[in-house]
Specification:
The complex is a heterodimer.
Chain A (H helix, E strand, L loop, with lengths): L1 H40 L11 E3 L5 E3 L8 E6 L4 H12 L1 H5 L4 E6 L11 H8 L9 E5 L2 H7 L6 E6 L5 E5 L6 H10 L1
Parallel strand pairs in A: 3-4, 4-5
Antiparallel strand pairs in A: 1-2, 3-6, 6-7
Chain B lengths: L1 H16 L2 H21 L11 H4 L4 H26 L7 H17 L4 H8 L4 H17 L1 H25 L16
The chains are: A alpha/beta, B mainly alpha.
């Protein structure tokens, strides 16, 4: 009886101890990753936009740096995201205004669509961008894992960057349809 | 069973709607809730930005859900308040909260920084955030209508339970009471 009572008291305590160790280990091991993510997370406005390569829908290889000399709207999206769909429609409607000053729009589907299935960048462009989506001033492609993590380590499904002619980050936001005035201002001033 | 449930719910609603104070209360709860839903539900299309910008994306489906959810929630709350004042045993509080949460999930969690920020806060690594964030938000975005339907069903059940507690409570009049309180 005594040994049974002792066993039954010991087992929950042991379980609690094991659980505590497991939680601490998880926190200890994840903290460095979180810290690394934090270091990488924030691209500083006013700093040069990190360069990366991508392939556009017509199969051409591009690098972000090749667009120096033009203002760029670099937009990472997920094709299941309702905000991305509605914003693409808004950008399409305002395309002429946005690109009148030579702004280049680069819209890249995040790596693996952020883990949830959806149309490819090509299919998305055809469905929601209309005729302006065919323009060379609106390039579409799939972002590599490296580029996706570099620019969007938190995995926001809708995130854009405004890069000036010198390749410097000047702005970042989500939902272009809600922040269209800022984008138009950038496109007009650049 | 459904007929009796409908009858009982209708009677409970009729009971409170006959009183001007409760009619005003129901309307006073309904109108702000309607405004809340009309602005919040379309914000799933504006990355969580709420205001005139989200109102632009209000469509027929979202307008109907806004009115339905606001009406069910206001009636449920009014019935619960009546039950509280009548000292009846209240039911359905958890369901009401659950319905409220379910109705607001699509606009608050999808395509907003909420999920990635929470994941980062609990110490998830960048690859983990990258994988999990999209799965959660993608699921919510894809089944938004389902979440709203679920919220509506939960509210209907909550309304039914509130009506049951209102109709089930029947305070006994104390007649010919003895000094010790026992009725003869």
């Amino acid at each position: 009886m005594t040994s049974f009572a002792q066993t039954s008291l010991t087992a929950p305590r042991l379980l609690r101890a094991l659980l505590s160790v497991a939680v601490m280990a998880l926190l200890l091991f994840s903290a460095p990753y979180a810290a690394m993510a934090e270091e990488k997370a924030v691209l500083k406005l006013g700093a040069p936009a990190p360069d990366f390569a991508f392939t556009s829908r017509d199969g051409s290889a591009h690098k972000l740096s090749q667009f120096r000399g033009k203002p760029v709207m670099l937009w990472f999206f997920a094709s299941w995201c309702p905000t991305c769909i509605s914003s693409t429609g808004t950008v399409s409607q305002r395309f002429e205004q946005l690109t009148a000053g030579g702004m280049q729009i680069i819209q890249l589907r995040l790596y693996n669509n952020l883990g949830y299935s959806g149309p490819s960048a090509e299919e998305f462009a055809q469905a929601y961008a209309g005729a302006p989506g065919e323009s060379q001033q609106w390039l579409w492609g799939e972002a590599s894992l490296e580029a996706s993590v570099m620019y969007d380590p938190r995995g926001y499904p809708d995130l854009y960057f405004l890069i000036d002619r010198d390749g410097v980050l000047r702005g970042a936001n989500g939902a272009p349809n809600a922040s269209m005035n800022d984008i138009l201002e950038f496109a007009g001033e650049s | 069973m459904i007929r009796s449930a409908l009858h009982e719910t209708g009677s409970a609603l009729g009971l409170i709607m006959r009183r001007r104070g409760y009619r005003r209360l129901a309307l006073g709860i309904f109108l702000p809730l309607l405004a809340l839903y009309l602005f919040m539900l379309p914000s799933a299309f504006t990355g969580g930005n709420i205001g005139l910008v989200s109102l632009r994306y209000l469509n027929a489906e979202l307008a109907i859900f806004s009115a339905l959810l606001a009406a069910l929630l206001s009636l449920s709350l009014t019935l619960n308040i009546y039950a509280f004042r009548s000292s009846a045993r209240r039911k359905g509080g958890v369901l009401t909260l659950g319905a409220l949460a379910s109705s607001l999930l699509p606009s608050t969690l999808c395509c907003t920084p909420v999920v990635p920020t929470v994941l980062a806060f609990v110490g998830a690594s960048a690859p983990q955030i990258f994988g999990m964030s999209g799965r959660v938000q993608g699921f919510i975005a894809t089944y938004e209508t389902g979440f709203l339907l679920l919220a509506s069903i939960l509210l209907l059940v909550s309304l039914r339970l509130a009506a049951k507690s209102v109709m089930g409570f029947c305070p006994l009049p104390i007649t010919n009471a003895q000094p010790n309180g026992i009725r003869s």
